[in-house]
Amino acid sequence: MSYHPALQALSFDHRQMIAMIHKIHKALHGPPKELRANIDDLLSYWQENGTFHIWEEEAILLPILHYRTPISSNSHLQQMLDDHATIRDSFHNLSITFEAGDPLEADHLHFLGLTLLRHISLEEILVFPKLLKRLPEPDLAELAIRAKLFRKFMDLPHRRPDQAPLRRLDDYLSSPASP
Ligand SMILES: [Fe+2]
Ligand SMILES: [Fe+2]
Questions:
Q1: Which terminus of the chain, N or C, has fewer Cβ atoms within 10 Å?
Q2: Regarding the domain delimited by 8-174, which CATH topology (the fold level of the hierarchy) does it fall under?
């Protein structure tokens, strides 16, 4: 997991997501009611954090990296984008099934869990370390600034929820210079 300021918020999200996947995996072997409660948590997390996490990677991280390593020339970055599409589609399907009150398919949940774990491994083991090696320090500093601003605009915690209380976008716009 990365502790560099440019990546630590994304890595923190990854840790949260892994914990959630483990919970779902455990719940698959428990009572259906418990599974539904966990899926409810997972979908809330996805809507409130996961969608923005992927957005941040595509809108903030990839453009700065693309400047040094074109996405079309790098199979890991292409895989990253493919995974994002798969993950989004899988969450859409899960959300529709859940809202309709239809039975949750264990195969679908295993697929989603496995896809997320593989994807997080790809980023943490292959993409992030290479990014830290390839980008010069000024680019990493720029990435950290852009990531922080993105989370401020999106009203997301920058590091940990307890270290960075949520602020409304209105608050930020009325005092953009304050931390
Ligand atoms: Fe990702
Ligand atoms: Fe990620």
A1: C
A2: Four Helix Bundle (Hemerythrin (Met), subunit A) (1.20.120)
